[in-house]
Amino acid sequence: MKRARRINIFFFIFASVLAVLYAFPFVMVLLNSVKDKREVRNEPLAWPTEWRWDNFAEAIDRMDYWQALGNSLIITVLSVGAIIITSSMLAYYLARSKTKFSSVTFLVLVASMIVPFQALMIPFVGLFGDRGLGLPGNQFTIAFFYVGFGVALSTFLYHGFITNIPYELDEAAGIDGASPLRTFRSIIFPMLGPVTATVAIINALWIWNDFLLPSVVLLDNEQKTIPLRTFVFYGNYTSDYGLAMAGLVISILPIVIFYFVMQRQIIAGISAGAVK
Amino acid sequence: MRTRRQEIQRFAVFALLPLSIFILVLVVPFGRGVYFTFTDWNGFDITKFVGFDNYIAAFQNDDFWQSMGLTLAYVAASLVLVNVVGFVLALLVTMPLRGVNGLRTAFFLPNLIGGVILGLIWQFLFGQAFPVLAEATGIPVFEENWLLDTTTAFWAMVIVTVWQMSGYMMIIYITALMSIEQEALEASLIDGTNAVQRLFLIKMPLMAQAFTISLFLTMRNAFMAYDLNLSLTGGNPYGTTELISLQVFREAFSFGNFASGQTQAVLMFVVIAIAALAQVAISKRYEVQR
Fold first, then answer.
1. Nearest CA-CA distance, residue A233 and chain B, Å
2. CATH code for position A181
3. B26–A28 CB contact, under 8 Å
4. A238 pLDDT band (50/70/90 cuts)?
5. What percent of chain B has pLDDT over 70?
6. What are phi and psi of A114, to 5 degrees?
7. Are B271 and A119 within 8 A, CB to CB?
């Protein structure tokens, strides 16, 4: 037993060292976010001599933080909501329909998941701006795109769950006179809670952090999300690292708060979402 | 059995809108994109068809090959390191250790944050913090800014990728480790196996499916990596660390070579498709049938 405990202590120390290494970059960002730019340059590892909280106020100002935060929130909520509605309905149709068309559609959806965004983004340019179709680069447009990209994986997740719901439930509701849509809304969808949580979390993390699509679609500064706005501190040369670090801290903060509130659901969502 | 009319009605109610969006956003641009590769498209107009000229040009383009080679090396290094580290982390945090939840959070946290921000954090570490750290501790590894040299900048990207993705894979491996039947482990204990044998002969084969998934996800993410590349190295020094995604982006949007950028993007898709099919086919052979 004594040997087992010694081994456990060894592994505990090993794991703790790794955890410190993993956390080190965040500690560095935090530490330097309250420093004067000269101090960051000369003493990046030292404890701040003078705590410059002004960095945060200036960073909020420079990156239009509140606006960017609002944009990120609206886009994420709008897109995730739309993905949940569309993909649960599509999955219900595909799981309950036994036609050749529905099985082919399902295969196409699964296959589409390996198409990189990079193969689509260049044809998109014709859609925006004055010389193209003139599609506005706003949150509704981008939510529409997120539904298009997100619907395959989410439908796949819902599909696996719905096929396990007995068909007798649909039939019983049908005999009671419920329309297909009513059956779905009142009977099936409420049973999908766990998958809906998974779908919501996986898509929310992706959309919140996404960079490439918004960088192509949201050209107007007032529409930009947090990941896009983080770049204001990195122009051709970065002069004020203290300010940049404060900007990074406030960019990271919302998602970290979200994690600590929803920790259990996030971990469960990732485990459940990784089924192939 | 439903009547044809009922079937069409259900399709209209449940599937028409989602499938229309999917087709408009994904299928049509993809089709248009492939079509553009056979033309002289400049982003706005097409004046003529050029057959396979764009593909021939891509194959003769040194930048494209350089970038593709770098991407394959990056994918390979990430594939191995992310999964080895992720698996080791999963083993560690499923042991009866104190503070396991705190450890899990520390390992998982980088994954919550987008690649752009992670890249900016590490740009600061490699450029400002590490050189000072090297001076203070006398550890020479980080004395120079890693991002100023092609080889070390490549490994800097791999390090940050491992830091970012290993926590995600850790979660998948934890789930798989927890779902191994206790009977199988107890039976092997009676047979007198040691911990190492149990790991390699019982646990790992029983969780082969988790490896399939994790390897697939790592590979897909690594092939498509863009954010991290842009914010950490920006392709520097002198464009030698441009992964294929950044290369495609710049070819099209910075240099305005839309048709040729799109051609490289289609080739990127072909490489990903081949790699994904091969990986899944190989992994499937190792999965234990239950």
1. 10
2. 1.10.3720.10
3. no
4. low
5. 98
6. -95, 0
7. no
Number of domains in chain A: 1
pLDDT tens digits, A187-217: 899 999 889 999 999 999 999 999 989 988 8
| Residues in B touching A122 (Cβ below 8 Å) | 33, 36, 248, 252, 258, 261-262, 265
Contact B107/A19, CB-based, under 8 Å?
yes
Q: What is the pLDDT of residue B186?
A: 84
Domain assignment present for residue A149? The answer is yes
- pLDDT at A128 exceeding the cut of 90: no
Contact flag A248-B117 (C-beta cutoff 8 Å): yes
pLDDT tens-place string over residues A4-30 = 777 788 888 999 999 999 999 999 999
CB-based contacts of A199, cutoff 8 Å, min separation 6: A80, A83, A84, A87, A88, A154, A157, A158, A273
The CATH class for the domain spanning B61-286 reads: mainly alpha
- Mean pLDDT, all residues of chain A: 87
Dihedral of alpha carbons B278, A206, A221, A125, sign: positive
Regions of chain B with pLDDT less than 70: 1-2, 287-290
Q: Which domain holds residue A143?
A: 63-233
Task: Return the structure tokens found at A25.
Answer: 């970059």
Residue A93 domain-assigned (yes or no): yes
Smallest Cβ–Cβ distance between A119 and the set B33, B125, B216 belongs to B33
Kindly determine whether residue A22 and residue B107, on different chains, have CB atoms separated by under 8 Å. Answer: yes
Residues in A closer than 8 angstroms to B24, CB to CB, are: 148
User: Inter-chain contact A231–B124, Cβ cutoff 8 Å?
Assistant: no
Confidence band, pLDDT 50/70/90 cuts, at residue A276: very low
Backbone angles phi, psi at A135, to 5 degrees: -65, 130
What pLDDT band is residue A108 in, cutting at 50, 70 and 90?
very high
Do residue A116 and residue B223 have CB atoms under 8 angstroms apart? yes
Q: Is residue A242 part of a domain?
A: no
Phi, psi angles (nearest 5°) of residue B39: -130, 180
On whether residue A111 sits in a domain, the answer given is yes
Task: Return the amino acid letter for B66.
Answer: Q
Mean pLDDT, residues A21-46 taken together = 85
Distance in angstroms (rounded) separating the CA atoms of residues B177 and B179: 6
Question: Whole-angstrom Cα distance, residue B247 to residue B233?
Answer: 13
- Token pair listed for B237: 């020094």
Which chain B residues touch A125 with a CB distance below 8 Å?
43, 252-253, 258
Report d(CA A74, CA A204) in Å as an integer: 11
Q: Which of B7, B17, B227 sits opposite A99 (nearest CB)?
A: B7
- How is residue B134 written in tokens? 């090297």
User: What pLDDT, on a 0 to 100 scale, did the predictor assign at position A132?
Assistant: 59
Please indicate whether, in this complex, the C-beta atoms of B171 and A267 are within 8 angstroms of each other: yes
pLDDT value of position A25: 92
Residue B16's pLDDT is 92
Residue of B82, B128, B139, B279 for testing the chain A interface, max A β-carbons within 10 Å: B128
- pLDDT at residue number A262: 87
Selection from A108, A135, A105, A107 nearest residue A123 by Cα: A135
